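Below is a concrete protein record.
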Amino acid sequence: MSEQDDLMAEAFAHLEAGDPESALEIGKRLESMQYSGAYEVQAMAYADMDDMEQAVSVLEAGVAHAPGVWLLWQLLGNYRSDLGRFPAAIEAYEAAGNCAPDEDVVIVDFNHANALTRHGDFTSAQTRLDRVLESPHLAQAGRAFIENAIALRMHLFNAQGEPKAAIATYESLHQHERDDEGSNVAMADVLAELSLAYKQSGDNDKALASALEAVQLYKWSDTALWALRAARDAQSDVAHVMHLIVEGQWYEPLEDEDPDGPPPAFVTTYDVVAEDEAEALRLVAECEPPQVRDSLRIAETHPVEHDEESPMPYKGVYATGDYHMYQPGDDID
């Protein structure tokens, strides 16, 4: 590996570890070496620091310096899309597709379709997604990528009031070869869209079952949490918005810390709309593994202000934090 490759690997390791400042320093060093990857690293670091405007500015400089690097164009499209600049995002995806290797065009097309969906151009998004699902390179992109593409197609059908087509799309998933395990994150979104399709079709039982399965796969999915709230379709004039600190006991040792030790305790957070703490805890329990549910308890409840002029949101879980695992006696502050 070259020095630039080593620096890129180091920068990505810093980004993965949540240290964008160190990655940014490496990116600037790479820029001084006239290496195009410098722009990618710096942009990702700025994005991780929530400075999307600077991330876009860096990438615009990058594509001016290295117009044949498709990864820079694609990342520019992604970030412009995140900022709601959809025509400019689409221009970037078109440029990326023009210079990407054949096997990578499928990835560009997926992101292009996603931006068109966000923009509300469902017809163009479906056409672009056709290119993804019909690509001879689709299988190379991996099972998780295919699941993401299926979830997007289902979302498009649901958004256009075609739940039967969304359900048929889900049923077609087994037709794709399964060379790897896929992703709980992607599959949670697939099942969430399936739940929303069943809800539109009037099959409330299947809607609830699919939503519960989705949150068990990945409870941090906004789509899965929304599908679960929509499946229940429950509102109450006496409900409250609460931020909860929840404690519990994990069900197995942590392999990467002490595989032979006792299962750890954990603490996490939830934002919930419920009538009282007992109902809130029942809603929280649905998002946790069955093995820990009996151990759950609410350690703290913090009321969240709600505009009295607005209708109370649907009851259910709206957000959940990461787990903090610890052993008795550990300092968990």
